[in-house]
Design goal:
The structure is a single chain. This protein has eight helices and eight strands. The chain is α/β, with parallel strands linked by helices. The strands form two sheets. Strands 1, 2, 3, 6, 7 and 8 form a six-stranded parallel β-sheet that branches. Helix 2 runs parallel beside helix 7.
Length: 262
Amino acid sequence: MRSTILLISAFLISSFSQAQILKKPIPDKLVVLTFDDAPASQYSVVAPLLKKYGFGGTFFVCEFQPNYADSTLYMNWRQIQEIDRMGFEIANHTHTHANVSKLSQAEFNQQLGYIEQKCDSLGVPTPTNFAYPGYGLNTDALEYLEAKNYVFARAGGSRAYDPLSDHPYLIPSWATDEKNKVEIMKAFEQAKEGKIVVLTIHGVPDIEHSWVNTPPELFKEYLEYLKENGFTVISLKDLEEYIDVKEAKRLIKPDFSKKLSN
């Protein structure tokens, strides 16, 4: 009898927590596409293809050092502004692709503030979401993000995002490259039973960083698969339609024992 009561109590607590965190149920086949580092191909290849397929996406922009000034390698701010005008989310990846686990709060604020000010000067909405450059993070970084009222932060980990157990500042993702097609296709299958698949994509292609290169043909293949199989493809910001972030932060303790890098 006692064990039955305990099971019922646990079920009720779980159901109550779920009702608080979720504004509405997470549908199967929900995928979030995110794009890091602002390589030039995100403007010339990625954004037009997303528009063609009717998909959302989040672009985590920075001024990647030391070759940011080379316009053949990276987007300029007018191109980033155009991506915003196309309806995609512009989010923060720090000014210089900095490892935030090594920054003081003042340095962190300066890094994020630079991107925020550039967006403001061009009429781009102030970023509310963040991705950790190189997946460098620590407990301080989460506190700094909270102090600046950021909503979500994306990490790595090569696993699905569970809004009921993963803290909003520790959203896991898979990173694509030219060699892991099988892994990514299997990842899409995990977008079910309340879990969300988040991808980290760099250049399509990525000229300067070959280890994270995604060939355009492979990227198109992913988009075609998602379209043909009825997936809903959104930006990170769109997750606010499903998740009460304030409640998620209150109820979910950050778990650094989980894999958070790719």
